[in-house]
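Students often ask why we bother encoding 3D structure as a string. The short answer is that it lets us treat folding as translation between two languages. Here is a chain of 362 residues written in the first language.
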Amino acid sequence: MKKIRQFWKFLTRRFVLFLVYFVLPIVLGWFMYAIFSASLPRDLPIGLVDLDRTTASADVHFTINASPTMYVKQEYGSILEAKSDLATAKIYALVVIPHDFQKDIMLGSGAKLALYYNAQFVLVGKSLNSAFAQIVGTLNAKQSVAQNLIKDQDLQLALSKAMPIFSQIIPLYNASSNYAQFLLTLLLPCMLQILSAVAMIQLLRGTPHSFKSLFVRYIGNTMIFVWWGICMLLLLKNLGYEVRGSFGLLVIGLGVLLLGINGVVVFLQSLLGDIKKTIGVVAVYTAPSLAFAGVTYPQNSMNFFALLWSKCLPISSFMELYIQQANYGGSLGGALQILGEMSYFLIFFVLGSLIYYKKRAA
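And here it is in the second language, the structure alphabet:
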């Protein structure tokens, strides 16, 4: 109890540490969850230019609004009228129904629908592209069924002629294509890594006068964020994101990840001897974690320099372990191999400790 009271008094004198240990993990975690809790983009506003004004174009309008991904927010008289709204993201896309749309359908001369979308928003653009392809497929199927029904007067036969091949698409490891599952499982560990590094920098503001003092700060900081990491894993599990492998191996992986990043901070501070410089270098080191962790951009698609940077980040190995255990239920041997690769980062603490020792001896 005495040690706990001493630790609490220490934190009350270090407001930044108090924030990093007890406030920011909750606030940032909630903020990330709130952003991506919708899981998939829905009801995205788009514009419509109907130059045909027929029953066929009205059917297009109805089918678009029936899609869960998009809805027609506003109709425009021309593409030029919609240009400013598309540029300012009041609408994310514009569907243009050309003149003689219904006539071309009746004549079978190849009616066309045009979709213009803002490709700056990558996720939104992909969602709209996919939804529009489904809408066009639905319209084609309805038209084919109607034509076949006139000839055959049998609904089942008309359906089979219109769609002779049915696709069976089975998504694996993220059955609902949940974007929150894709991002939260990456963002939360990256957040823990950065917060742990920030806290370690704050603990090193006062130069440790002995190895024991340095070791206590190193282990203490790691244990606090391991606890937050366990909370993170439990949250992900409660959100329904499966862990098919070992929960214990993931906890061990978290421990090695945090020991590694804290060791890097100790090494940099011992080498540079300046908190401001250390903050700058650590920021440059950890900032690209999201891009190079191997989730948003697979490692087997990276060029040499991107792969090298990825291997220099402990978070990339942890994410490999997480995917192996949570998604695939990987073997113990495979997990131990990844943990072995992560353990190389522990060398940085040893090097940092030696540099501190040599500086004290001098």
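Translate back mentally: The domain at 44-162 is CATH 3.40.1710.10 (abc type-2 transporter like fold). Keep this in mind for the problem set.
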